[in-house]
Amino acid sequence: xxxxxxxxxxxxxxxxxxxxxxxxxxxxxxxxxxxxxxxxxxxxxxxxxxxxxxxxxxxxxxxxxxxxxxxxxxxxxxxxxxxxxxxxxxxxxxxxxxxxxxxxxxxxxxxxxxxxxxxxxxxxxxxxxxxxxxxxxxxxxxxxxxxxxxxxxxxxxxxxxxxxxxxxxxxxxxxxxxxxxxxxxxxxxxxxxxxxxxxxxxxxxxxxxxxxxxxxxxxxxxxxxxxxxxxxxx
Length: 234
Ligand code: SAM
Prior knowledge:
The chain has 7 helices and 11 strands.
């Protein structure tokens, strides 16, 4: 469970109403029950529940069970999709190792980011579910051109481009020397020809195919993240 508080033995953190509901009403835990908690910066802790009153629940860290691993470094650059797919893709990107989720506004974007807090909450939930101890950040949207203009060139952008002749991404991803990577997936309407030409002209961008078929943006993201994960083994 994610607790947004300092964790040390002897301390106690009061459960939020949502955490109270989940631990008491869903998991039916009671006095003395033990759970694993993390705060995204101090590793994982075994904690004990105590109820000073019927309506109050304290989470008491007892001992650290895992130290804080390095945060995942992969950046996931994505054109916003419609809300339902957006929740899904944030969840999948976190599960597949993204450490930063950066919405990118392109010419054909159909979705928009109306609620960053909701996406951030999805990232927290995905982190809890897949057992990572850091919380990937969901950044405010940027325009593609601004993103590229300010890009630090020691990080390579892997650009999913269905216009490639070959269909196999593996040799292209395997050939990347940089350890800092970003994945760029377009919107349901695709990148414009102008955007594709710009991206393919940049020396810090590697276009990759994802097979011979046109994938939905969320399918493409998961497919590309799987290729990257297989290639960097992380
Ligand atoms: N341009 C597509 C079309 O003509 O229908 C629409 C874009 S596709 C739904 C959304 C994004 O997924 C694309 O911008 C691209 O980044 C990625 N994508 C989809 N299929 C792909 C493929 N076969 N190879 C590489 N990227 C792909």
